[in-house]
Each structure stands twice: as structure tokens, then as C-alpha cells.
Design goal:
Thrombin, subunit H, 2 helices
């Protein structure tokens, strides 16, 4: 018997994604520092809409408000967009604090 459920990428995609407008400088092991625009984020990962230079499997380190430095790897690329999964799940209280900073307009925040 296993040690609990292992979430697949499909299961992780069911996480609530919050729209954001956040510019970040990511650390890429091969390309060095690259400028990215995070357009949505969840406790499991994020999507960028300017990923022309990235490929599936690429690893990045980004700095997020409240959370600080966190590593993520690219799980999909489609045209100029790319989806990244965090190496670790962000704690709910930290995630909600981060969303409050990333979405200063309360109209953008999800209710509930």
C-alpha cells in the first residue's frame, strides 16, 4: 500500500487559479535571469504569458511576495504561454497573504 495519494498533473490543474499581473525576474540555470509575466497563480503553480524562450522541463527559481524564493518546473508550453508546477505546495495562510499582495484590487479576488 502506498503512502497516500500522488496527485497527477490533471488533479493539480483543478486547483483554484487566481488572475494576477506580476512581473518577475526568474533564475534559469542555462539562460540566467529572464523576465517573465505571471498571469495566474495557484498554490501548486503558475502560468506565464511570455514564454517564447522556455521549454517543457525547464526549471526556474522565482521570488514571490510572502513566499520568497521558490523553485518551479515547466510542465507544458503552448504558443507563448507556459505552465509551471512548484516544487512544494505553498501553505494556505501564506498563499492567501500572497494573493492579497498580488491582487490589490478586491474585485479580482475570489470569494469564499
Amino acid at each position: 500500500m502506498g503512502n497516500g495519494a500522488q496527485l497527477s498533473v490533471t488533479d493539480l490543474r483543478r486547483s483554484t487559479r487566481h488572475p494576477v499581473d506580476y512581473k518577475v525576474i526568474a533564475e534559469h540555470r542555462v539562460q540566467g535571469d529572464i523576465k517573465l509575466h505571471v498571469c495566474n497563480i495557484s498554490a501548486h503553480g503558475f502560468m506565464v504569458d511570455n514564454a517564447e524562450q522556455l521549454g517543457r522541463g525547464d526549471r526556474l527559481i522565482i521570488r514571490l511576495p510572502v513566499v520568497g524564493r521558490i523553485e518551479a518546473y515547466c510542465i507544458w508550453v503552448a504558443e507563448e504561454r507556459a505552465g509551471f508546477q512548484f516544487e512544494r505546495i505553498i501553505r494556505l495562510d501564506d498563499f492567501m497573504s500572497m494573493i492579497r499582495e498580488l491582487q490589490p484590487n478586491p474585485a479580482l479576488r475570489r470569494r469564499g
